[in-house]
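#random but structural
TW: two for the price of one
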Amino acid sequence: MFSPSESSRPQQELRSPKALQRRCWELAAVRKQKSKEVALLTDQMRETETYVSISEQVTEALETLSGQLFEQQLHLIQEKLTIALQEVLEQPLKLKAVAEWKRNAATVEFQIEREGNTEDIMKGQGGSVANVLSVGLRMFALMTLDETEHRRVLVLDEQDCWLRPDLVPRLVKIIHEAGQALGFQIIMISHHDPTMFERYADCIYQFTPSKDGVQVQRIETDWQLRD
């Protein structure tokens, strides 16, 4: 049961012009806010519809661009490593990179071409070609890494193992020049005579096993003294 005074309050408020005016203002503000929200959602839907309508074209364009950049990288690798092969081995060798796309991924097969004839990289030169190519490919791989997370340090362990002694200085020269150009710190481990490195190495350490352990000696060369 409600008292007459309680039941009459809503009617009195509705009959009040000020109350009605205040209520109209409130509803008008809500309507204005809802209209803004509808307009914003409408714009977002239009943008989404536009994106969906061109998504396939964008995907195709990005795939085409990725393929073009990949081909450019391969061309650069072929060019630079062909120069390195010819300078180190003094033979008419060319590096050929054959790319193939399978399941949205690229596979690359490297071949050596000599005067139009294809040779196996591992067998054709008894490993000397592999010595040169592996250095270059490692440098290219390191160049793709984020410098803020990966230092440009390359350690080459017996990278000249299949080269004739007279070819070793040529490989060291290529490594030295590439390291300077790309900003790499390179540590090269070799069993060859230290004199083969003296012209291009910033410093040389010789490790000699003995009964007391391993002796380490820094070798000063005439080339370093000239600098």
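TW: number two ↓
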Amino acid sequence: MSARGVSVLAIWLATALVPNAGAQSPQLPGALPGVKTGGSANVHLLAHIPVRGFMQTVDIEIEQELSRPYVYLSRSRILTNEAGFTIVEIKNPAKARTIYTWQIPNAELSEQGLGGVGAKYFKLNGRYYLVNSFQFGQSGPNADLGAVVFDVTGLPDTSKIKEVGRIHAPDAPNGFHNVYLYKHSDGRVLLFATSIGEVKIYDMGKFLSGDARYGLVGRVPVPAGTQIVQAAIPGYVPPPQAIMAGGNLGGYHDMYVGYDPATHQDKFYGPGSGGFHVFDVTQPEAPKLLTTVKAAGMDRGHTFTPDPTGRYAVGESEYQYAPLRMFDLKPGLDGQVQAITRPIGAITGDWRAVLHNTEVRWPYVFVAGFEDGFSVFNMMDPTNPYFVGSYYTCECPHEYGWAGDRQAPRGRSVYNGAEAIDVRNADGLIIISDLESGFWALHMDGFEGWNGHQWGVPNISSAQDWDNGPEGAPKKVS
């Protein structure tokens, strides 16, 4: 498309999709003063399932096949010791319902840790599995537990859900805060799991076969010379997971792994100590650092999500008032510079809070934001992103979030509200996990699904093609 064509399309999208500024719904009955409710006129509520207790729902994952209408919510144990996961059935999203909840035994014996924090699914040899990651600190019977794996092939018959094994990390207790499942270009299903100072890589085929090392095949290190940042920014309040782990912010956080069809590389995008790091993991046994993003005010990376081409990426740092920043990775990937030091664009919602996790379906970036909830912006021009929709899910007062103390959980922090987000590509369903209010399902007018080919980009996102592998990867000859 010509530059003029792109400009015309951008103008059309701006006029067609920017929500009516006066469309916010009136104050709901019983809402606390100052609580924001409703949303933009083009975003509609399909379902809301409240979950008992503050900070009970953490990560969220939706299966991508319409024939398997299941959502997985990871459950923390901050207040109730209900560490585990919940399954929500969304065959009719407007009638979403909870069909199953599992809790790990003896969670109350651990004095520290968030409990269940990550939920991701994968498919291997025709069967479906859920990986639920855990963090229990260094006390109790689960000090070195990283994740529990379940066979969920038999859904909707919940009696057929079976635990198939557990992944322990005795060399790095405190468990796995984040997990990411990836269909590698070589055909393997790989689990990337955050651990102290690194990300561990597990071959799930080996794990299911009973490998003595749980299928561990590689490690993504924090680059040499990177410092573990604890309070590099004045007024910085460590996020909940850091507080529960004693303030140690070393290692990685909300990572992404994707295939680059232009270079035929599998790439790991890791936010963490020292900024944001991109590794070549085509050979996961020996990852190679490609480039680093280290911009002012971003010594600690929290979320890092590239577009389908791998050139542009959205970075988030976990401190109040921080905007999301857009980066052009090309100079670093081409070897022109050792590190990217300046963003090319930025965007923020309510400047008093902080946007949290992101899912990119180019040109849209879907965001889960603390205190506010759901928002989506257009990054067709990454130097000038703009919002096109929003919906408040937290329905909570300002600075009424996690204070780091189980006995007095609330304090003057913004760590409350939408924790995680996912998007089903087949029909555009948007799901939210909110620390305050539980599960939400939303729909945005004009977004009926996503395929990169419709936008002239590779059909690559966090949604995996478990049967065929990443688009553009050479087919393996058996």
